[in-house]
User: What shape does this take?
Amino acid sequence: MITKSALADLPSPSPRSADPAALAAEIIERLTYSIGKDAKVAKPHDWMTATILVIRDRVIDRWMASTRQTYESGGKRVYYLSLEFLIGRLTRDAVSNLEMLDEVSEALQALGVDFDAVAALEPDAALGNGGLGRLAACFMESMATVDVPAYGYGIRYVHGLFRQQMSDGWQVELPENWLAHGNPWEFQRHECAYEIGFGGTVDSVDDGTTGTQRCVWKPLERVIAAAYDTPVVGWRAKRVNTLRLWTAQPIDPILLDAFNAGDHIGALRDSNKAEALTRVLYPADQTPAGQELRLRQEYFFSSASLQDILRRHLQQYDDLSSLPDKVAIQLNDTHPAVSVAELMRLLIDVHGMEFDPAWDITRKTFSYTNHTLLPEALESWPVPLFERLLPRHMQLVYAINATVLRHARKVRGYGDEQARSVSLIDEGGERRVRMGNLAFVGSHSINGVSALHTDLMKQTVFSDLHGLYPERINNKTNGITPRRWLMQCNPGLFSLIREAIGDEFMDDAEALSALDAFAGDSEFRARFAAIKRENKAQLSNLVARRMGIKLDPSAMFDIQIKRIHEYKRQLLNIIETVALYDQIRSHPELDWVPRVKFFAGKAAPSYHNAKLIIKLANDVARVINNDPAVRGLLKVAFIPNYNVSLAEVMVPAADLSEQISTAGMEASGTGNMKFALNGALTIGTLDGANVEIRECVGEDNIFIFGLTADEVAARRAEGHEPRAIIEASSELSQALTAISSGVFSQDDRDRFTDLVAGLYDHDWFMVTADFDAYAKTQRQVDALWVDEEAWYSRTIINTARVGWFSSDRTIRQYAKEIWKAGP
Assistant: This one.
C-alpha cells in the first residue's frame, strides 16, 4: 500500500516537450491508443481529438501545479457563479496561451494535417447567449492570467440556447448538439456529486442537545448534481483555473418495478425530469412550467456550487467562521441570487449556526454584479411558486427581509414607500420574490459595469437600497481579453502591431498606446488597411459560402452583432437602411459610398417583436440585394447562428461598429470594445461603455449621436410624441410607410403594420426621436470614409487607445477592491 507520505516523496512528472517532433509522435500515439485509429484511415475529427489530448496534457501539468500552489499557500479563492459561460472553441486559445502555436502547427504539418482546419472542427460550446456569457468567459481567462485562484461555476447545457436557422427569413430554433461527439477538454468528477432537493416540507425538531428548535427540510424530489471540469489557461500559462459545470442525474435512473410492470415510459420519469434541468439555456418562462424550470435550474447550480465550496473549505480549514477570509463568491447577475438564501440554509440547518453569525458570513462572502436596469431582467418569482419549490428558502427570505426592514425603519428612518422599495417581497399586485434585492442585501459589494450604468443604478432600480447601504455600490467597467479578441482572431494586425511597438502590449494591453505615434505614418496606414481588407475578404467568403451573397471587400463593412432586442435598436438601423436605399435610387447622380450592412444575433423564442425584426432585416435584404437600381452600392446580410466563432470573423472585418442602444439601457456592452480594438470606428449613443470609449479615443475618433440618458428620461416623463417627429421627417416617414405598406413583404402586406404602429403610438425606445440624428451622423461617416488617410488614422488611434478595456484591468480591480484575492 502506498502511503500519503510516500506519495509526497514521489517526483513530479517532467514537463512535456514543446518540440514539434515530440508533439507529432505524441499525436500519433494518442490517435492510436486513445482513439483507436491508424493514421492512414484517421478522419479529421480523429486528428482534432488526438491534438486536443496532447495539448491537454501540457495544460494538466500547469493545472495541477496551480491547484497545489493555491492549497499550500492558503490563498483566497474566487468563485464566479454564472448561468452562462460563452467560452467558444478552446483549442486555439489554449495553444496560444501555452505559446505553442508555431510548434503545434509544425507538428501537424509534418503529419500532413492543417492546424487551422483541425481547430475549426471543434464545436462552439453552447453554454451562453450573448454579452453576459462572453464576459464570464473573458473573466475566467483573465483571472488565470493575473494569477487569481478561481473556479467558475455554471451548468453543462446539452443543447444550450438554440441553433438559429432561417426559413424564408424567419428565425427557426433547433437544438445545438455541441456534445454529440463528446468534449475532449472536460473531465467528469465522479467524486463531486451533491444531492439537490425541491419541494416537500419543513419541520421543526429539537436538536437533542441544547433544547432549541432547528428546521429540517424534507424535499419531495431529489436529483444529483454531477461535476465536469474544464481547465482554463491564462496567458503564458502562468495559472490554470477551473470551470466546473453541473449536469443533473436522477437518484434512480430507472424505476425497475414500473418497467417490469410494462410502464416503460413512466419508469424513466425521474430520469427525464432530471435531465430536463440541464438541457436548455433560458427555457421560455411565459408559462408556469417554464418559470418553474428556470427557477429549478438556478437553484440546482447554485446549491451544487455552494455545497462544493463549503466542502473544499472544510477540507482545508477547521470551521466556517473563516469563510469570508478564504472565499469570495461573485454572483454574475441575478440568476444565482438564490445562493444567498441557500448559503444561509447550509450554514444554519446543516452546519448548526445561529442566524446572525450566518448572515454576517453570508454578506461578507458574496458580491453581486448587476448587468441591467431593465425591470424584466431583474428577476422575480411568484411567491407561491418559490414557496412550493423551495419552502425552507422562503422562510429564510422572510427572515432576511425582516432584518432588512427593521434596519431600514429603525436605523435609517425609512417610511412605508421606501420600505416597500427595499423589501425582498414585491407587494404591488401578485406577490413576488425580488432576486435583485436579495442579491443586493446579501452582498457586501454591488457593482455596475460601466460608469454611466453604475450612476443610473444609484438613481433608479436600487436608489432606496443605495440609500440604505450607501457604501456598497461601486463601478467595475467591463473588459475583454486581448488574447482572443486581437492576438487570435486578428493575427495579421497582431503581427503588424508587434513589429511596430514590440511585445510589451502582449502582457499589458495599455502599452498599445505606443501605436498612437503611427496614426500619421502613411506606410503603416497602408499596411493596416491591407490587413483590414484581407479580413473583409475572409468575411465575404464566409457569406458567399453560407448565404450565396457576393460582397465587395472594398465597400464599407457596417456591422451590428448583438442579441436581438428592441432596446438595442436593430430596428433603427434597418429603418435607416431603407431610407438610404430610397436616397440611392432617388439620387443616382450622387457619389454614394458603397456599404454592406451586416446583422447577426438571436432573438428569444418567445420575443415576438425581436423575431419580427429579424424577418424585417431579411425581407429588406432580399429586396435591396436584388434591385439593379442600387448598382451594388448597398447590400444587407443577416448571418444566421451568431456565436463566438462567427464573431471572431466579423469583428476583425468591421469598418463601422453599430452601438446604437437607447441611452441609459445598455449596461456596458463589450462588442464595442472588441470592434474598437480591431480598428473599427464606433457609431453610437452615449450609453454604457460608449461613454468611456469616447473619453479614451477622443471625440474626433468616434461618431456619437442622439439623446442622452437624462434626455431619454425627461422625454418619457414629459410625454414623448413620436407621431409629430415622424411627420416632420420626410426620410423617416417615407421609410416607415414603405415598411408598413408591404413594399418589403409582398406576400403579407400587413406583416409589419403593428411593428410600425408601435413607433407611431409610443416608441418607448426612442427610435423616432434619434432617427434624424442617426441618419445625419451616417452621412458624416460617409464623408470620412472617402478620405482614406483620415479614416485609417482614426482607426489606428482607436486600436491604440482602448487597451484600458482589457479584462485583465477589470479583474485586477475586482481582485483588489472587492475580493481581496490574488497577488
